[in-house]
Fold:
Amino acid sequence: MITVNFNEDQHLYLQIVDEVIRQIAQGHLKSGDQLPSRRALADHLKVSLNTVINAYDQLTDEGYIVPRERSGYYVDLLEIDMLPSEEIETKPLKHEHAKISEASQYTYDFHFANRDMTTLKPKQLLQYAPDALAKSMANCNLKEDLGALPLRLAIANYLRKYRGVMTSADNIIITGGHTASLQTLFALLDDSIYALEDPGYYKNLD
Structure:
């Protein structure tokens, strides 16, 4: 049965996700094995049903499990060798030029669920918003052509942990949208002939 240690530093649904992945990687759960129903697992862990639903949805999105109508959730066909190892899991990717604060304590908590809306003064907020935005933009490294380094590091860690793809932040490019992404891809490809899905995106990219 799936268990978690209720680590306060990580969301419960992510703990369930990590535990399922760990059991798959260690061979305790094999391709085709059925997972407990969402309600049964919620009752076993004594957590809300939504917590388990979020975990199963995440595992489904990542391709670890598949739902079968009126049957439940099953471990998908996976290549165990492609799963991230625990040794790799414990080593978050970093960059020699990264300057990311690792402080765990803050003077103010701006979490949306912890705000006292009764003390919010909209006029004062609008008054200081432009100045705050200007300072934020000034602190950004606008010369970083590949995109914000903290974001690229987070994506690289995500790919390593949930996709089993080992890459560095230097191989990740943040673009301004779909068109910019296509233009970047076309510039990187040597072949001048491209294929797009039909129906697809027909806007002129020249």
User: Anything to note?
Assistant: The chain has seven helices and two strands.
